[in-house]
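User: Good morning. I'm curious how pyridoxal-5'-phosphate would be positioned relative to this chain. Could you predict the structure with it bound?
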Amino acid sequence: MWKKGASKNIIDAELASASAEDLHFSDGRIFASMCAQPLEVAVEAHVRFIEANLGNAGLYPGTQRLEKEVVRAIGGMLHHEGAGGSIVSGGTEANITALWIARNVTRRKKVVFPKSAHFSFHKACDILGLEPQMVGLDEKFTADLDEVKRVVDNDVCAIVGIAGTTELGAVDDIEGLGALLPDGAFLHVDAAFGGFVLPFLDHGPPKFDFAVPEVSIITIDPHKMGMSTIPAGALMLRDEGQMRTIRKDAPYLDTVGQAAALSGTRCSAAVASTYAAMRFLGEEGYVKLVKGCMDVTRYALEKGTGIGLEPVMDPVMNILCFYAPDVVRIQSEMEKQGWKVSVARNPESLRLVIMPYVTRDSVDGLFADLEEVLGGLDD
Ligand SMILES: Cc1ncc(COP(=O)(O)O)c(C=O)c1O
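Assistant: Good morning! Here's the predicted structure, ligand included:
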């Protein structure tokens, strides 16, 4: 610990130097992040509510009201105005909480999820003492329903479907999973990434939300395609009453004595930020934003096929993967050129996430360097 405090100028210089070491979305070189560059209005809202802590909700009736409005707006977007829920720190917390509720309601042990599921489901099973039952993927890279059928039984507490897989952006057949749901089990949909994309696509998105009657809980992250600040995930429940199964006494807090969240203190500035982003963009704004991302995604697809790369699948949303030889080496060579791309493992391929800050110009730059890197692979 420092013995003496430093001046604001010194701190500012130190922070500027640390920030200069970081990459920034505005550099146009990041194709490997699922987080948004938050809207200015969202950043301002975040700063204004920097003190808010819904872990001690009684002190913050205004923030609580904003949270209710955000949950109602997201519920409407997901075809259930009456949905309940809360803003949490992100997709991981939402997924863990979803399975926590499913376990407590059902008192069962098994969770069925595809091998494309985010690693937060492994964390959740570990923490909650649940038994993961992974199923393989079909030719569309979505959960193999025949395998699901084979493994479900009355010990299943939840089947998980992914609406926008982390690696490929594939959308599981949520209706198909619903048809296989054992009595009393939960159907949890992880739409952490896809939740703010699918409702706004112009090409007839698959049904993935509360419009599917079996869907019980949905994870959807405002800090990804919702254009909010970090940390903002949302846990959305068809039946808000189920939250009571994770409620704990919190006698010292001004929260009517009970709290139903994994976190204690909650960074509730993200509630205001999410409210501001959604209020500012409205449905029309998200439609435009998603259209922009999909246009750039298709442009990148053409660029990739133009240099002889084969896409893993036709992109459903703004994630694009190409088969390529020695992808790990390509990734590291691209890094030397200042580009951040990632590698998908199932199947092994070069992965590009086309967030709203990715422009056609940066796509041009990336593919020009990628072509050179591919040409030099035999050296
Ligand atoms: C589908 C999916 N679910 C969950 C998560 C975890 O979200 P977070 O990193 O906000 O905890 C991610 C992260 O990329 C994701 O893609």
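The radius of gyration is 22 Å. Residues 34, 90-92, 95, 118, 120, 162, 164, 166, 190, 192-193, 221, 233 surround pyridoxal-5'-phosphate (CB under 6 Å).
Let me know if you'd like a different ligand tried.
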